[in-house]
TrEMBL record, chains A, B, C, D:
Name of protein: tRNA(His) guanylyltransferase
Reaction(s) this enzyme catalyzes, per UniProt: a 5'-end ribonucleotide-tRNA(His) + GTP + ATP + H2O = a 5'-end phospho-guanosine-ribonucleotide-tRNA(His) + AMP + 2 diphosphate + H(+)
Binding site for GTP: 29-34, 75-76
EC numbers, comma separated: 2.7.7.79
Binding annotation for Mg(2+) 1: 29-30, 76
Cited Gene3D superfamilies: 3.30.70.3000
Provenance organism: Gigaspora rosea
Boundaries of every Thg1 C-terminal domain copy: 139-243
Cofactor(s) needed: Mg(2+)
Cited function: Adds a GMP to the 5'-end of tRNA(His) after transcription and RNase P cleavage.
Length: 259, 259, 259, 259
């Protein structure tokens, strides 16, 4: 049983350490979530509980990996931003991405019942993951703008699409109505036909969810048994605009970005 | 909301396709499973139910990914062998590994209650994953021999260790007794002190679990409503020796190996 | 002058070791050789001296790197096959490819005068290089067949093209004549219009050049001053067919291939 | 002769594009230059002509690749800095490094006679190359500081070593004298024993060579046959300190750096 005789096979493992001093973005994506959301009767175009479950998973991932400074989620995807100096697992790509995806997935199944107490999970859902390196603060910010723009474009389309379908159109008819329309026409359609003011819809649907650590005051009892208030960084979900400057002006220094 | 303005950030994604015509081995490993098994009161040195849950997860991964021709598991790890011609996700490394790990994890949490109906899952477990490429059938077989040898060495050690601890020794005392002992001495210790014949212990503990597709006869009802027997390939768990030639002689052609 | 303060920059170097146990093929290609051959008045379609210079460079590269078991060249390119077990520079990709290309280039300029004693080298030529990994003997052989087929197709075309041009056609007219013709038509054109039997043209032009080490008897004087004959492996150029089985049957065992 | 039958082998080529928006540094290093400099009787510790030949090669590489904004050389090595936005060869690593090394090597052999008219080149020299990516301007500057510090440390040592050897010491004796000495002791040794003021030695030896494009006025004759003065960017060698701020203050904007 000479173990050493076989151990040479370890030499086939590749060193896949990522470049130092770059922002790392891990994006987790639902695998086959179109079918998954159908089977589980998710509300269309947005299922609030399903989005809150995604946020919960992301919060727990952030609580486990302290090098994640920001997470942004929409629909069935979540992006995690690891700070430039991150040395987690020696920056080994597959180690980082596989662990993150696993933790996210695990939380999704584990917490399902809390968000859908009356709905049985019919089969185990899964996610894929990827890592992208961004050398520059501007590249990182543009990445996040790209995802939030994607959220906006898809959500506006889906809101129209499902309004049409819920009003009696077939899916094909709804597609035909929307083909070639620009944003202003979609807004107009929602307002004139369905009396929906798109900008009044919940921000979580229109802008997705941003999670960063915010300082909060925590009431606790100290070692002497006395009530005290302590400041602590808590992962906090909001639904802000992360394309415009305002968010970044507020949070740059905290996140380690230079603009 | 010019999406195109930001889309350049996609160019930072790396093409990580693996080399064609090599065996791909994905190994999934429990993350922090020492603590996890303690917290959940796993029987030591082997918890039958926990191992069966691992096997269940691996079976479901194989049922989802048809390019996996063989899986081998022991302790809190599982290796999946994808055939050389596998073109799953264009052989993109992080896509393959992240999806596999996610599916494995999801099954673990999803099926927990079936294997531990009386034990609550206290927190979401996670796994990491890696991919190794093996150009040659012999390299692949040596990889599997390496893992099964590892299973044997660890299990023999752990069986002694826990026998000593269960008999009243501290963990440190048990370690001291075992330090420097060879296999024959450990076998002797089990037999003389604890009346345990190591070779009579369950094969799943001593050899781990091998999963391949085996042809099986399935009784079913055909379109005319008549009972028929059909042959079908079913993923099947066994606990065979995969170091010696016998297993390979039996299964080579099925697995696409040349020896 | 704290050196250590800056040495962290070495961490940005990537480990680019290639997979063990795969054939490595380095292909060196002339950069801008269309212009280079024009400026230096190379005979068209084939300049014997220029091809011999390429062969000389390849021989010297093989004499320097003993892990190269075979080289194949045609036109302004040369492919070098490193044996599977090659551990040159720990199989680091850029180290291997850069050194090989450098040595090839250096030999080209260094030996120019020997092949073109009456022709001044007008400016320094350059080459690029790449490495491809082949896990399987058949993949490697197919690679070489691909290059020799390329040689055949290009040479047949060029032989026709330049025969037409030398006979007074413009380059555009020659292209038009050849557009859409198959091999047999090109052979016929050469024979009927120019009385050229393509298969009688020099093998170096039609098949390119293959270099392997062949055992040869070397006459030398031993330490006692006596004439002796020693067997030695000498890099040897030939112009054989490497697509058909014959070459491989003769040389398989020597090259470490299994067919 | 079905070419397509074999063309699948191209699929084994890996896409090795480097990350966008990072500084790329290519370092070219002499291979076996200790022996090469001995065989060709280079003056020790510094051969002015050999260094000038290196500079000439680097200038020509810069004239060929316009994306190189700065080059730094010392001893038998040269580093080339490609600007962040460089899209040369789609940033493919082996293509970039192999071409650069080839061009450098070619120039070395091609120009040998101009620098050593009385010295025959005995055999073809070669160089290796590597690429390193630097995401940040500070990382890049630290890289260059690292190389210039290396130049200083080695040159001070070598100046002492060869002064001792030229004065009659064996190489081993010289090593023993210098073991454990710090910079100030080496300076003192040169001054007291050999009357050498280290800081008065040629800057090229002490600081290496920096090449950037400088605007120069070129006298030329225009299309009307009239003498005119035109401004043009010309690659220019100097021997400045590139560790201190001064050089960067002068050249930052030109080089595209932000400090």
């Amino acid at each position: 049983m000479a173990k050493s005789k076989y151990e040479y096979v370890k030499k086939f493992e590749r060193n896949d350490s990522l470049l130092p001093n770059t922002w790392l973005v891990i994006r987790v994506d639902g695998r086959g979530f179109h079918k998954f959301s159908d089977k589980h009767g998710f509300v269309k175009p947005n299922d609030q509980k399903a989005l809150e479950l995604m946020n919960k998973c992301a919060e727990n991932v952030m609580n486990d990996f302290h090098d994640i400074v920001l997470a942004y989620g929409q629909s069935d995807e979540y992006s995690f931003v690891l700070k430039k100096e991150c040395s987690l697992y020696d920056r080994r790509e597959t180690k980082i991405v596989s662990t993150t995806v696993s933790l996210f997935t695990s939380n999704y199944v584990f917490n399902w019942n809390k968000y859908f107490p009356d709905k049985e999970l019919l089969y185990p859902p899964s996610f894929d993951g990827r890592v992208v390196q961004y050398p520059d603060d501007n590249n990182l910010r543009d990445y996040l703008s790209w995802r939030q723009t994607d959220c906006h474009i898809n959500n506006l389309y889906n809101t129209c699409f499902w309004a049409l379908v819920h009003s009696g159109k077939t899916e094909t008819e709804a597609e035909n109505v929307l083909r070639g329309t620009v944003s202003s026409e979609k807004n107009e359609l929602l307002y004139s036909q369905f009396n929906i003011n798109y900008n009044k819809l919940p921000e979580m649907y229109r802008k997705g969810s941003v999670i960063i650590r915010q300082e909060a005051e925590i009431n606790t009892i100290n070692q002497k048994g006395i009530d005290v208030t302590r400041k602590k960084n808590i992962v906090t979900v909001s639904h802000e605009d992360i394309i415009r400057d305002e968010f970044w002006k507020k949070n740059n220094s905290k996140l380690g970005l230079k603009f």
